[in-house]
Write a structure and sequence with these properties.
The protein is an all-alpha fold. The chain contains six helices and no strands.
Amino acid sequence: MDRITRIKEFLQTNPSDNFLRHALALEYIKLGDAAGARVLFEAILTESPDYIGSYYHLAKLLEQIGEQTLAIEWYEKGMAAAKLAKDQHAYNELQAAYEDLVY
């Protein structure tokens, strides 16, 4: 059984599990399914804005598909959320990616 199938089975019993949804989005990226990954990351961050790890991946995905303006917005939202959560490591990663894109 492949990873995507297993993750989807786990999600059937706990559909709002952010860890599983994040993992599924990363698997979609590996397969080149940017749209599927984007939907999952956006759902996670809409429902759980404190799920800091998804900001970087969503913004990076948006960069890769040519949506720089949206990527910048998500990096900014992620930096604000990381600051609020006092997660300096995540803040630094988001800020570095943001600066690479903006400057």
